[in-house]
Design a protein that fits this description.
The structure is a single chain. The chain is an alpha/beta fold and 142 residues long. It has a single domain, classed as DNA polymerase III subunit chi (Rossmann fold, 3-Layer(aba) Sandwich), CATH 3.40.50. Helix content is 31%, strand content 28%. It has a 7-stranded parallel β-sheet with strand order 3-4-2-5-6-1-7, with helices on both faces. Helix 1 crosses helix 2. The longest helix is centred in the C-terminal third of the chain and has 17 residues.
């Protein structure tokens, strides 16, 4: 079963937290898909991965421009159903439940907004019923 890590945001916001977790997983040697959910989030994440932290760089490419002969370790996409070699899915937007089965690990972020928290609780309960390994963490993303 997939391990799902929920990161409850104490401060900061989802894009910054997604960049931090992506950088940590990349440095640990994982290949990742960074799920944006939509084109606006994709553009924001693409930009932030260059600038989210001083002297930090995470090699990445948008899915549609990945060089198949020399793929980047981090692929940004608006879909998550085909991992294309990635074992970790970092979700800057809530993923469709069917995406989980394609990855060893999944990271989700839970902003302080009550509506987002309630939706995350529903996903957590669904994942628990499906038998996934669940973990919760608090994170400061500033």
């Amino acid at each position: 079963m997939t391990r799902v890590d929920f990161y409850r945001l104490e401060t900061g916001e989802t894009h910054q937290a997604a960049c931090l977790v992506t950088a940590k997983a990349y440095q640990a040697g994982y290949r990742l898909r960074l799920y944006a959910g939509d084109e606006a989030n994709l553009a924001e994440l693409d930009s932030r991965l260059w600038t989210f932290r001083q002297n930090a760089f995470v090699p990445h490419a948008r899915r549609e421009v990945v060089d198949e002969d020399f793929p980047e370790p981090v692929v940004l996409a608006t879909d998550c159903l085909t991992p294309e070699g990635a074992s970790v899915l970092v979700c800057a937007a809530p993923p469709p439940p069917e995406c989980l089965e394609h990855y060893e690990r999944v990271a989700e972020f839970v902003p302080a907004d009550p509506e987002y928290r309630q939706a995350a609780r529903r996903r957590y309960a669904h994942y628990r019923e499906a038998g996934h390994e669940l973990h919760a963490h608090a994170i400061r993303a500033n």
